Amino acid sequence: MALTPEIDIEEVDSDEELSLEAVRLSQKTYRFDFETGRLTSELITGLEAVRQFVMLSLRIPRYAHAIYSADTGNELQEMLSDPDTTPEYKMMEIERLVTEAIIYDDRINRVHSFEIRHIDDTFHTSFIVDTAAGVLGFEEVLSA
User: Over the stretch 65-124, which tens digit does the pLDDT of each residue have?
Assistant: First the structure.
């Protein structure tokens, strides 16, 4: 008498297998409404889901909420609010901290073409993200 039932497992052609990248891009997530700060019941995938991930990563402080892993969020606020650093140093660090906030995601290949302008107490930042689903452009205003 066997402890486990015998099950016939169908062999799969390698042509039929989906690449890991295609599987990740097809995963669905709920749309986040940035105006209301709430999730909606609408499901999104692909480039739209990657855009939402980047936007959330730039708005969530890293280590601030126990619900998020240490890979989620950014460390921009601490650096931007430091009164002892110069605007030039902050401009240099923005590129590194934005990249670190989003590059760990497998769907993101590269973050590049940063343009940062210091205006009053804000930093107007634009950059490009190359993803497995396509290219995204972002413009953000960062402040302390």
Answer: 888 888 889 999 999 999 999 999 999 999 999 999 999 999 999 999 999 999 999 999
Q: State both tokens at 1.
A: 């008498």
140: Cβ–Cβ under 8 A, 6 or more apart, which residues? 58, 124, 125, 126
Tokens of 31: 């749309």
Residue 144 is predicted with a pLDDT of 81
- pTM higher than 0.90, yes or no? no
Q: Count CB atoms within 10 A of the CB of residue 138.
A: 16
- Cα 25 to Cα 29: distance, rounded to the nearest angstrom: 10
5: Cα separation from own chain's centroid: 43
Identify the CA nearest to 75 among candidates 89, 63, 92: 63
C-alpha 44/C-alpha 30 separation (Å) is 6
**Structural domains of the chain sorted by starting position, each given as residue range(s) with its CATH number in brackets:** 20-143 (3.10.450.40)
